[in-house]
Amino acid sequence: MAGQGDGRMDTARPGILVMGAGGHGKAVLDLLMAGGAWRIAGVVDDAPRLAEVLGVPVLGNDAAFAGLRAAGVAAAHPAIGHNAQRIAAAARLLAAGFALPALVHPAAILGRGATLGEGAAVLARAVIGPEARIGRLALVNTGAIVEHDCDLGEGAHVAPGAVLAGGVRIGAGAMVGAGAVIRPGVVVGAGAIIGAGAAVLADVPPGATFAGVPAQNLHPETSP
């Protein structure tokens, strides 16, 4: 992969750093390689355990930031699946002077008028409906469907294969599990967790955990 992870090559394309050498980091690298618009400058990780990921060198931890910025790498992406950790990583990247562009896999579909916030990511085969809003640092994972007029808050995560029908609102930092389905117009509160395969038919309070078909509150005693 000539040019991947080597700041001396392929300078016609802008460089981007990927933060996170785990499974989601691998998915983001795959997105960038498929798209071709970016030159991948390397990967950093809080606790590097690998020399490379998908052939891209792991450059160490945050200590590599200054050298990458000096080499002209101006963009980065926090490729971390855990919502709170992704938001914290983004803050460190911004403090180091990196821009956080939104990333869209070329195999994803974006409807007319859909918008993506800073650092958002839309992975392969995901579908974003018309006039949906994907918030800052939100993640729409592989094969998920976010229908028309949905609104994903900052740092929310829609896991693989989940379906959000029209007009659903997902609060900041909320997690929608793999294969979950949310009925039109439902509001999922900030920090809530929707279990894998759940069928959500009514609003979910902030911070609650709902699972099952139909979805039920697993800890009603802690709900406001």
Automatic annotation (TrEMBL):
Annotated PROSITE patterns: HEXAPEP_TRANSFERASES
Pfam name, any one: PglD_N
SUPFAM superfamilies, A to Z: Trimeric LpxA-like enzymes (SSF51161)
Gene3D superfamilies (alphabetical): 3.40.50.20, Hexapeptide repeat proteins
Molecular function via GO: transferase activity
Keywords (A to Z) from UniProt: Acyltransferase, Repeat, Transferase
Domain of life: Bacteria
InterPro entries: AcTrfase_PglD-like, Hexapep, Hexapep_transf_CS, PglD_N, Trans_hexapeptide_repeat, Trimer_LpxA-like_sf
Residue span(s) of domain PglD N-terminal: 16-92
Signal peptide range in chain numbering: none
Family: Belongs to the transferase hexapeptide repeat family.
Protein name: Hexapeptide transferase
Native source species: Roseomonas fluvialis
Gene name linked to the record: perB
